[in-house]
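Can't attach files on this board, so I'm pasting raw text. These are the components:
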Amino acid sequence: MITALSEKECHSLLRGGRLARLGCVAGGFPYVVPVNYVFDGESFLVHSMPGRKVEAMRADPRVCLQVDEIESHLRWKSVLACGTYAEVSDAAERARALACILSAFPHLTPVESVIADDAGAPSPVVFRVRAERVTGVKEG
Amino acid sequence: MITALSEKECHSLLRGGRLARLGCVAGGFPYVVPVNYVFDGESFLVHSMPGRKVEAMRADPRVCLQVDEIESHLRWKSVLACGTYAEVSDAAERARALACILSAFPHLTPVESVIADDAGAPSPVVFRVRAERVTGVKEG
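---
Top answer:
Structure tokens for the assembled complex are below.
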């Protein structure tokens, strides 16, 4: 029996999670990739190397983040949050956002340092997605 | 360092997996849900109760299935397979497809039996997505 999650249950799952599958539309086709995120109760903060998903979201900013907890085929929860891609380009705001992301993922910091030290490496893109519509379901 | 997976590595991951995140486009917005699947080397077989994702795919049959193996933030693989939604509606073909799915998910069989015995319950929709374009990346 699949039932709806309450708003509180959805937010609890989003706050506790670190891994989402981000969906966007690339040239009319759906495009899904795993991303790490931090959720502050209103928005997701994500960083990514430049590439296909960033190009797709710049062209069509409608995105969703799907977060789940799957114990078995018959016992799982899934939340879908839909919103709009907003690139964080202001330098001070970007530094704050990146610090927030790295504090949630301490293992990434050495990688980010290597990237920062390599003048030839592309800068990671930092973006925010406000959770405008959140729905969730569970089974079991 | 993120690198591309070979075609062989992509297919191996798709064959070994049972859980995908299915992406489709619902009213212009990306829509992502977890689904169980069986992959026969060419197509994914999936069954689902009728609902929003089935309605969305009937309206716009462009879909993708994303399958990953995530050990850590810095050690993961992800494959994206794009294709076209094809509902399996022929009764004999549908029965064969459902038997194939249920053999991969034996725990589902009692649930399917309950649904089959309940004349008021909606029938699950069975569909196939041919993997027309497959790409994959890994880190670590």
